[in-house]
Design brief:
Shape: rod-shaped
Radius of gyration: 13 Å
Length: 27
């Protein structure tokens, strides 16, 4: 079976910026 690598990458690309912006900058 072929894993939906493209879908995983899309979700990662969408989740990464959201996590970066939602997380307050740690000092």
């Amino acid at each position: 079976q072929f894993l939906p690598i493209t879908l995983t990458m899309c979700l990662w690309y969408i989740s990464f910026p959201i996590t970066m912006f939602n997380s307050p900058p740690q000092q």
